[in-house]
Amino acid sequence: MKKIIVNEEACICCGACMQVAPELFSYGDQGQSVPKKEFVEDDDKDAICAAEGCPTSAISLVESEEKKCNCENCNCDPCRCGETCDCNK
Asked: Of 59, 50, 42, which is closest to residue 7 (Cα–Cα)?
């Protein structure tokens, strides 16, 4: 799993990440990019494209041992990601 980190100070609010990965990024209060999901799979092509395409390198994908469910509208037990979670509580 990779954790999505956006350096808000480096973000220039260009929206490039939202163009390539609208399911992963949105605009924050100050116009900067914020991740919609905290974790993605290691090979998530949209996350990789967003990080590589960021003109200021404000997006990082950091290796994480922690596993979180990122399924939208997850029904758990087990959810679509294969992990057992309790995100509906």
From this structure: 59
pTM of the predicted model as reported, rounded to 2 decimal places: 0.72
- Given CA atoms 21, 23, 29, 34 in this order, what sign does their dihedral have? negative
CB 47 within 8 A of CB 40: yes
What tens digit of pLDDT does each residue of 15-55 get? 999 999 999 999 999 999 999 999 999 999 999 999 999 99
- Beta-carbon contacts of 23 under 8 Å, excluding residues fewer than 6 positions away, are 36, 37, 46
Other beta carbons less than 10 A from residue 11's beta carbon? 20
CA 40 to chain centre: 6
